[in-house]
Amino acid sequence: MKTILLLLAALAVAVGPAWTLRCHVCTSSTNCKQPQPCSASSRFCRTMTTVEPLSGNLVKKDCAEWCTSTHTQQGQVSSGTSSTQCCEGDLCNEKLYNAMPSRAPLTSTALGLGLALGLLALLLAPNL
Q1: Domain limits of the chain?
Q2: Coiled-coil ranges per the record (predicted)?
C-alpha cells in the first residue's frame, strides 16, 4: 500500500510542471478569440489595443513571459496610442476590457505538491 501511495505522490509531482497557460493568440481589428497553448515560460496573457487613425483599432493578443499593464478607460485612448492589459489565468484575455486582473488558479504543480505532502503525512502517521 505504501508503495502505491509513494508512486502516486511521485506521479503527481512529475505531472505538475507539464501544465501550460492557454491564451487567445490573434491579431484583428475586433475582439478576436483563438485559444492556443503558451510556452512553458509564459506567465501572462496580454491584450494590446492600438488606435490607428485611418484603419480603426488594432487588437493583438498573445502569451508573454513579462507584462506591464497600461490602464486606460474605454473611449479615452487618443489616436495613435496603445493600451496593454495583462492577466494570469487560462484564457483570461478573452474580453477586450478587463475590469480587474484575473487571479491565477492553483497550478498543477501546487496541487501535486499538496497531494504529495498529504500522502506523506498519511505514510508517517498511519494511525490517524
Answers
A1: 20-100
A2: none
Q: Which CATH class is domain 20-100?
A: mainly beta
Residue type, 97: Y
DSSP string, 59-122: EEEEEESS---B---TT-PPTT-EEEEEE-STTTT-SSS-SSPPPPPPPHHHHHHHHHHHHHHH
Minimum mean pLDDT range among 8-17, 69-78, 103-112: 8-17
SS3 5: helix
pLDDT tens-digit map of 37-52: 999 999 999 999 888 7
- Please give the model's pTM, rounded to 2 decimal places: 0.58
